[in-house]
């Protein structure tokens, strides 16, 4: 009988939109006629390559099979399952092994730096500057917000939130008054996800004098 199939995938996370390769293997079966099916969330997908090889065990000839599939990872694959299914005449039913795509998927954050109310801002108006990292996966991301200028400050990081699609969002914000000494202040938003390069956004605060009636 065929052994329980083993499915191996990438050893590092793959960014959504990129191709990922997976291998499935089983051995110890005879005769050599065997069927290997790949399924993603229950829907069959074609294998890129399937090879049946001879193997010798205790002077008996048996066979082993190796099958490979390549699929594009999608942003919504956090909970998707890839399944390798083996069918052989010696089995009462198919053998199968699944691979959780969420364990190797990376969805980069959408980075947005916003000033509220938008510039130009009237003098002595409360201002909130927010560095947003939105819709990323997995949840290990770092968000930092810096104010450069007369008032050098660092933003306060908020609570990480879970989105309905399985991604995460996080922000850092600064609150201040639009006084004359912060006019033309620059804000730097830095976001880093696991070992990826940092993403940064900058914005400048412009203040207008309030017109006298």
TrEMBL record:
Keyword set, alphabetical order: Disulfide bond, Glycoprotein
Signal peptide region: none
InterPro entries named in the record: Ig-like_CS_Receptor, Ig-like_dom, Ig-like_dom_sf, Ig-like_fold, Ig_C1-set
Record-linked Gene3D superfamilies: Immunoglobulins
Ig-like domain span: 2-100, 109-206
Protein name: Tyrosine-protein phosphatase non-receptor type substrate 1-like
